[in-house]
Design goal:
Blueprint (H helix, E strand, L loop, with lengths): L2 H8 L22 E7 L7 H14 L5 E7 L23 H11 L5 E7 L7 H9 L14 E8 L6 H12 L5 E2 L10 E4 L10 H23 L1
Parallel strand pairs: 1-2, 1-3, 3-4, 4-5, 4-6
């Protein structure tokens, strides 16, 4: 099945029933599929983290095999990238990325990712850029995230506050891992776009929350379909 056929017919056909004995693309023998949501906002537990969690909760409704985990980077100490796909001196680079983030991304490798970032000056957060740079270690010597479905969401201070630009920036970076980019559904085809207009209560943005839910469902459906191949 090529990519066009997968996107136009595979997901529309629904997830179906998958036997308990089948294994996921990451080799989990239990038949469970793990989707990790990454909140790249420096504000721990705020609007971006909430939006990612909403997408994860929606993903779990697709099939009992779907399990989720939220990785909130807010308040973590993550250094900038040193330009190498390999860690430098182990004792010097054991920041929160090495200690907390990396284990969730390769032990085992998740079956899907949902990445969220706030829109700051119509661009991704500095923390998101650092995260995307540091996961270069997942490209060498093997592309660990290759063919994994990845969905993206963004939260802005305005309804049209650069969210789609942020989504595109993150998607472009993730294509370097040869992932499968998964969009959303109307009214947010690229991914989920949310508006923080209610004093940090992102749940009041009904339109944005609905787009986050649809994104989570799409990533879960893609993970299930890929696990069947």
């Amino acid at each position: 099945m090529d990519r066009r056929e997968f996107l136009t017919t595979g997901l529309a056909a629904g997830t179906g029933v998958i036997s308990a004995g089948s294994s996921s693309a990451s080799g989990q023998s239990s038949g469970k599929l793990m989707i990790v949501g990454v909140s790249c906002s420096p504000r721990k537990g705020k609007t971006t983290a909430t939006a990612v969690q909403v997408a994860l909760e929606a993903a779990k409704t697709v099939n009992p095999r779907i399990e989720t985990q939220l990785l909130d980077l807010g308040s973590m100490n993550i250094s900038g990238w040193n330009g190498s796909a390999k860690p430098a001196d182990a004792e010097l680079t054991k920041d929160d990325f090495e200690l907390k983030v990396l284990p969730m991304l390769r032990d085992p490798v998740p079956d899907g990712l949902i990445i969220g970032s706030p829109s700051y000056f119509r661009s991704m957060s500095a923390l998101c850029k650092v995260y995307l740079d540091r996961i270069a270690v997942l490209r060498s010597p093997t592309l660990l995230l290759a063919n994994k479905p990845v969905g993206v969401l963004s939260v802005g201070a305005y309804r049209n506050g650069g969210q789609e630009l942020v989504i595109e920036q993150i998607q472009t970076a993730m294509l370097c891992h040869e992932v499968m980019i998964v969009g959303g559904k109307p009214p947010a085809h690229q991914g989920a776009t949310l508006w923080n207009a209610y004093n940090d209560d992102i749940t009041k943005d009904e339109l944005g929350i609905e787009s986050a839910k649809k994104l989570g469902v799409r990533v879960a459906e893609a993970a299930l379909r890929l696990a069947q191949e």
